[in-house]
């Protein structure tokens, strides 16, 4: 994989993206995205997590013991806890990760739905799957439609709406718990305005430059088979004790004989 044409192409895309994250606009976006991710992962204490990110690592605030970071080739390996494999063939067992983060890779993969399927496969039943994407309905998303230069990150990717990814998640049997929008700024501004950011985040206005989707696996309840109680044949009243019927109840013959003998004595 590390020497394949596909791996080389993905490594080149990831390298080109690093220049954007070093700009003022990229750093501002990364900080707001990290602020959105913090409340989701800070309290999770699972054994393993996976981050497939186009930018700097964001899972350093998590309490998970073994954070794993994915890389498309050996040339981009940052530590011994780096997974190098095809994005649509993760070398991990089923449902082994407490947290999986896909940071803008779904916009830059030719077959992104296969990568999402793999990310869902390795997410544990009680785990969380987090997706970051650029919002095509935001101000920069509308600007992207008429930009002539689209060869550089982030304009080179295929931006999908949060509703579109909701449909993709439903296909892999995940349901969206929450969608958060972040980074509210003007077209000529590189910083996410503190006032506008607070207002947009408070009301979760769907006009932010980026969104974060939090999803979990759908819980399938075990089928319940109700037990039917009933008696196939009628049961004699003597076996069930005294029962009420329309006719007056009478002692059996043996009981009346014992009663007369006791009266004689």
Summed up:
The protein contains eight helices and seven strands; from the N terminus they run H-H-E-E-E-E-H-E-H-H-E-H-E-H-H.
Task: Provide an overview of this structure.
- With 265 residues, this protein is α/β, with parallel strands linked by helices.
- The chain is built from eight helices and seven strands; from the N terminus they run ααββββαβααβαβαα.
- The longest helix is centred in the first third of the chain and has 18 residues, at 24-41.
- A seven-stranded mixed β-sheet has the order 3-2-1-4-5-7-6, with helices on both faces.
- 29% of the residues are buried.
- Mean pLDDT is 82; it is low at 239-245.
- The protein is globular, with a radius of gyration of 32 Å.
Tags for this entry?
19% strand, 8 helices, globular, alpha/beta, 7 strands, 265 residues, single chain
Tell me the strand order in the biggest sheet: 3-2-1-4-5-7-6
Low-pLDDT windows of residues: 239-245
Global structural class: alpha/beta
Helix content: 25-40%
Q: Using DSSP, what is the number of strands? A: 7
> In DSSP terms, counting alpha (H) and pi (I) runs of 4 or more, how many helices?
8
Mean pLDDT: 82
Strand content: 15-25%
Query: What summary fits the major beta sheet?
Result: 7 strands, mixed
CA gyration radius, whole angstroms = 32 Å
Distance between the termini: 105 Å
Subunit organisation of the chains: single chain
Question: What topology emerges from the helices and strands here?
Answer:
Elements: H1 5-21, H2 24-41, E1 48-53, E2 66-71, E3 82-84, E4 97-103, H3 112-122, E5 123-134, H4 139-144, H5 162-171, E6 174-182, H6 194-203, E7 210-217, H7 237-240, H8 253-264
Parallel strand pairs: 1-2, 1-4, 2-3, 4-5
Antiparallel strand pairs: 5-7, 6-7
